[in-house]
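idk why but the lab printer keeps eating my pages so im just putting this in chat instead. protein + glutamine:
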Amino acid sequence: MLHTLSLVDLASRLRDRSLSAVELSQHFLDRIDNASKLNAFITVDPEQVRTQAESADQILSTGDSHVLCGIPLAHKDIFCTEGMKTSCGSKMLDNFISPYDATVVKRLANAGMVTLGKTNMDEFAMGSSNETSWYGPVLNPWSEQRVPGGSSGGSAAAVGARLAPIATGTDTGGSIRQPAAFCGLTGLKPSYGRVSRYGMIAFASSLDQAGPIARSCEDAALLLDAMSGHDPLDSTSVNNDPSTASAQLANTISGLRIGLPKQFFEDGIDPEISRAVDVAIETLKSLGATTVEVDLPNSAAGIPCYYVIAPAEASSNLSRFDGVRYGYRCEDPVDLADLYERSRSEGFGAEVKRRIMIGAYALSSGYYDAYYLKAQRIRRLISNDFDTAFEACDVILGPTTPTTAFGLGAKTDDPISMYLNDIFTNTVNLAGLPGLSLPVGFDNAGLPIGMQLIGKFMQESILLNVGHQYQNVTDWHKAIPQEYQA
Ligand code: GLN
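predcted complex ->
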């Protein structure tokens, strides 16, 4: 049952050589094969897995290796991987093989981790259900009629079904935390600038952050520590040392002040979610935490603000896909304009086009002040709200999502209702703060419920510490969907 072991347990077996990296990665490759119906992966290259695992075994045999050496992981298909396709969930990049590795990929490979493959995702990370992928939807391992969440849905389904011990994701407005919540996992969006964006295909550059999708806070901390740290190749990378969250997991949370924003506990939230979150709050109190009500008066403006800023940045970022330099090119263009137009029309899906059009409109000279500039001002207010709230508390707590995993197809015809999924998550990106989602129960349909902890800038170690203390006394994070236990 290698897939039930924590990263720490796997690492110790790899070190004492009772388990080889080749064996371990083969175990997960077999599981990926058997669970192909979930559609969690876009690319798996068993040969490359073997080569990487063999070289990890070599390093392990020297007795001098990184703690993660030999541990397999899955990367969201938004991270550039040298020699392995990077599609970003889009027909536009179906033929794209990056000439270099993203910094995240490189750091984890340097630690000796083995890349099992690239996971499915919403096209260009735009979505909350993994249904905008050109490679088809991903199924939720807890219920095949439900979405796994998005945009990192493939990573979440893969870890949820234990097809990988851990995975990377990216979060622009909730895409690590929401799928983690829908699949019963622990997902962390680090502070903006904590993890390098170099080689991570850009959606909205001022919001995008990479982070772990894991089974526990302990696992997530190990991956965060290995993937974070300053990178001169990313101009927005914060000049800090790598995170040391793993070393702080055992700290007591006695005296911790938890802020409960009244806006996160209003109507519209599934009562089963409210109940589970209330119980989790009581558990944290029993560990010595106290609660205080805080106010985030501008949170309702989060969705409209995000859905102006994110598309605006996306429309600019996605202009590079022109059919000339790389990616999809239409057949037999008659002239340059035709080449641009048809390559983009045929290469992008509907949601991506919608975002490009909204973004280009919001940035156009006649409407810039009315939309983009206004959204930037609201962004500042949202950020100020958090600053004020954090004067009274150490972390902010609430549900991760207003509902549990919804049905496949339930929201595909209604973009606004899809966007509303991000109501508790995207203000965190607008403010650049760290956010952690962790499982706190199940609803009556047996679907996982996620709770979110939001921290001060660069304080992800506190979030992981609080989450770890919670996970020490609860078992929600250990639950595995029936079909994937054995
Ligand atoms: N659901 C949000 C969107 O569609 C968030 C996506 C993300 O975080 N990448 O934009």
